Fold this protein.
Amino acid sequence: MNPIKTVHSALRTRRLARLALRFLAVLLASALAVAGAGWQPASLAVIAGALTWLLRTSRSDLTRDRRS
Amino acid sequence: MTLRPAPRLALGALAAVAATALAIGLLPVTIVAAIAVALAWRGGWQPARLYRAAAWCLPMVIVWLAAAAISRHSLSPADPELAWQALSRGRYLAAAVLITPLAVPAGLVAGGLAWSVRLAAMAAQAGGRSPAAVIRFDDRQWRHQVRAAKALVDAPGAVPLLTASGDFVAGAVIRAIGHPARQLTRLPASRLRSHQIVIGGTGTGKSTLLLRLWAGYLASGLRGQAAGVAGAPLIVVLDCKGGGDARRVADEARHVLREVGAGNVAVWPDDACLSLWTLPPRQLISTLVDLIEHGTGGAAYYTDVMEAIVTLAVEAPPGPPASTADFLARLDPGWLSLAYAAGGYDGQLALVRSAARQVPDVALRFRTLFRRLGAGLDGPGSFADADVWYCILEGTAEVAVAEAQARALVDLLASFVTQAPDGGRPVLLAVDEFSAVARRLPIWQLYERARSLGLSVQVSAQSWHGLAARQDDRYRLAATAEGGIWLLATPHPDPVTALAGQRAAVETSRQLAGRLRWTRYGASRLTAQPVADPDLIRAFEPGQAAYIHHGGVTFTQVKQLVRAGQPDLTGPLPGAPGLTAPAAAATAPAAATVPPPVTGLPDVTGLLDAAFGPAIGP
């Protein structure tokens, strides 16, 4: 198998997995917030905070492979 | 006023009770602060990171306030009260959610304050149960910081070569003193275009760092070229050790730099040539004479004779020689007489006649020299033929030959730069172990020359003493390294760390109360401590480096460039004039080897950079 493809496939898979995990964490936090407190300002704030965290931390998964 | 021990104790107890009551009263904030301090301790973070995290809670707080204002027509949310009510009813999840928008940012700020107090106390040697606690704390923090930096370096995509704003990224910051406390070791691109020094022994990660620096220079230059602000960058590496190790690094450099965007990477003299005979005649004469080692004293006479004969051969009416064979053929009294036989050259003819007996001796010396030099300088080829030239000089095996080669290559590069139109291309001359061949071209002279030509010079050596033969020259080099000094593990870092200077620090003594018991009483005073601790550098692991610049130091875990794999050389190959067949094969278009971009995810780098600033690690 082409080693270039192998490396990129691994990288892509790992990044996708990380991104998926982040999405799941945000979904879980949002669901817990709404389930726990209902549609209160605080639960909306928790959702906003989780989305901010997602954007802030998942950029390395969303950027093209800038040669590192 | 000094309080006596009993009132002092009472006051202390009162303060402790008040603090405990406050912590219990604001339990959610206390919990978040405790978690924040624990994370900062484990990750070796600075308090600023907790403050930044608190600042990033701002969107959450804004949404909270806005939602409260809309739903209750009031700017004072009732959630904290609701949270206490929920807690009293045993609805813990609801209580946690309701208090989160307030507790998280406040807790992060409180945690940052607590952590900064702890760090300040330990830095002043006033914390811990004993004076030795400070040492253990610092050792532990160093290990935590190294672990966090390694994790960041290992995370895919977390350490780019260049940031969106064009800064070069060397790796992850372990610890910074006198420099901004960031996660990534970032240098403005202008720093790469200044003189730099790299010091590190074998096995310390020096080659990894050099490759990254070269790749950063190339990538930055290519970005400048794409923006139309500069020409295509050129990197010339003089590896003055030679041998198998140099060829291994050359191979690595070839692959890595092509992946960064270099079109052609030429390895001299193994698979690419340069032509000494493209030098302007006056420069060619000077270079040819300097290639031959001369004695001193009475030998100066022979030097003059040689220069006269070389001048006759180079400036003969047919024009400058085009090759080694052409030049050697001219070192013959008969050829010279014939060349100057046409009218108007009486002076030269007289000179040929008077030097006729020395011409064969001069020819013999040049014949021997060119036989030892090999075909690497006989062309065809020029520095314009490639983006990167990796020149291997056998400075370990054949010092005299390597010295001559170094002299010729530097002269060729100087000529190339001065002849380029409109300032030409930005050029980096990277010299590894130049002291091995610097006997006849002192490194200081090279530095001065490069400065006058507008070249960036990067000098690397195994140790401080390997930089130059004389102490004065070493300090002159170090003092003019505007781009900074990279220091890897070395047993004698003190001369270099001294260049970072000293900083004011608080030193606290403790009163010894008995066997291994210290009281809290003592005295503090201001002392000067080195900015760059030489003991940390002595204990560096491979891949760790200290970047010293402008009175500060950044301890860095260098990110190794990812090599995607072996190149695919099956496509059509370009034929550059200076490259022989293997070189042409090795300099296939970068596009042929650059792996396809990740297609599964959209590239939103620009948007993210605009919204959140330059990239940081996960």
Notes: The CA atoms of residues 44 and 141 of chain B lie 5 Å apart. Chain B has 24 helices and 13 strands. Residues 566-601 of chain B have pLDDT under 50 and may be disordered.
